[in-house]
Amino acid sequence: MRVGVLTAGGDCPGLNAVIRAVVRKAEWHYGDSVVGFHDGYRGVIENDWTELDVEACRGILPRGGTILGTSRVEPYSVHDGVDRVRLTMSELGVDALIAIGGDGSLGAARDLHDDGIPIVGVPKTIDNDIAATEMTFGFDTAVQIATDAIDRLHTTAESHDRVMVVEVMGRHAGHIAIRAGLAGGASLTLVPERPFDIESVCDSIRQRHQRAKKYATIIVVAEGAEPAEGTIELPPAERDQFGHIRLGGIAQVVATEVERRTGYETRVTILGHVQRGGTPTSFDRVLASRYGVAAIDAVHEGAFGQMVALHADDIVRVDLNKATGRLKPVSDELYDAATQFFS
Ligand code: F6P
């Protein structure tokens, strides 16, 4: 077989490990050849690709990012996009595609499958918000980076007796925030799933300072966290070229209000894309490698329109129709456990 691979949407650590695993099993086990499309679906639409073999993938396992490049371009947002995908595949003799992406890119894979393109999905996002899998690779790395940052913020916060507001990624769900907050011993964590009341945030800081004279505070905020209705107004959001709201900055809003209302000196750290960069943790390398192997097996078993997923430490397949279009929020159990340490 000749198989095409692409990485679409925001990058995350572990993409190269998936590519390497697909290529390794495709070439050595099945005797396939593999085409790597550049910049996600753009490469398939525009016939921009590179030949991938085991040699080309040497040394990429620990490398962050994606050797193929990525973009948010999708066949359904481009004129004749689906026909151009078909044309590229027939010109190159590509029998099937493996799309590694988040909810949006997997949604495009679902629609391509409905339009007759043989395609298998691999879920990725540092946000870990894809509903049909317990874990996406890249998430563990992001949580570790955020936890390390919180550990560092503790010492400087204590020296100056300051409030530190640290913003982590998490567009629609607070998985990174809640886990890094719990692991890093945050005093409070604000997530998109639970709109926050700024006055309660300030009250908990005041209470900390009543309990002890010096009481530095770390507040973790997911970038998608929102104030409860009728509390504080956010500035109008900017959008990127694909119409996605550009997040980043809620920590500054929280910090300004905290300092104004409580009088405690407050500083902001926005971790941003640092969380998506650099080498994947061993957990993410293993998960990504297992996904890659499972994806090429799925191609050979004709399991098109399906996505590989992690369920109770087993790699399974889930229908892309069921896997996309709904996101996974932080569970009540995890949120409640984290609240036991809010103080
Ligand atoms: O991939 C998910 C994500 O990292 C979100 O957490 C974040 O809001 C978004 O991507 C940022 O996207 P961009 O790289 O386009 O700024």
Determine the N-to-C terminus distance: 58 Å
The domain count comes to 2
Strand order of the largest sheet: 3-2-1-4-5-12-13
Mean pLDDT over all positions: 96
CATH topology descriptor of the largest domain: Rossmann fold
Question: What is the alpha-carbon Rg in Å?
Answer: 22 Å
**Strand proportion:** 15-25%
Name of the top-level CATH class of the largest domain? Alpha Beta
Characterize the largest beta sheet: strand count, sense, and whether it forms a barrel: 7 strands, mixed
| Ions and ligands | 6-O-phosphono-beta-D-fructofuranose
**Based on the structure, what is the oligomeric state of the protein chains?**
single chain
Q: How much helix, percentage-wise, in residues?
A: 25-40%
Strand tally: 13
Question: What structural category characterises the helix and strand content?
Answer: alpha/beta
| Shape designation | elongated
Explain what the structure shows.
With 343 residues, this protein is α/β, with parallel strands linked by helices. It is built from 11 helices and 13 strands. The chain has helices spanning 15-29, 41-45, 81-92, 103-114, 139-160, 175-184, 198-211, 250-262, 282-300, 320-323, 332-339, and strands at 2-7, 33-37, 49-52, 96-101, 119-123, 163-168, 188-190, 217-222, 238-239, 245-246, 266-270, 306-311, 314-319. The strands form 3 sheets. Strands 3-2-1-4-5-12-13 form a 7-stranded mixed beta sheet, with helices on both faces. The chain is elongated and about 70 Å long. The relative contact order is 0.17. 6-O-phosphono-beta-D-fructofuranose (F6P) is lined by residues 10, 102, 125-127, 169-171, 223, 240, 247, 276.
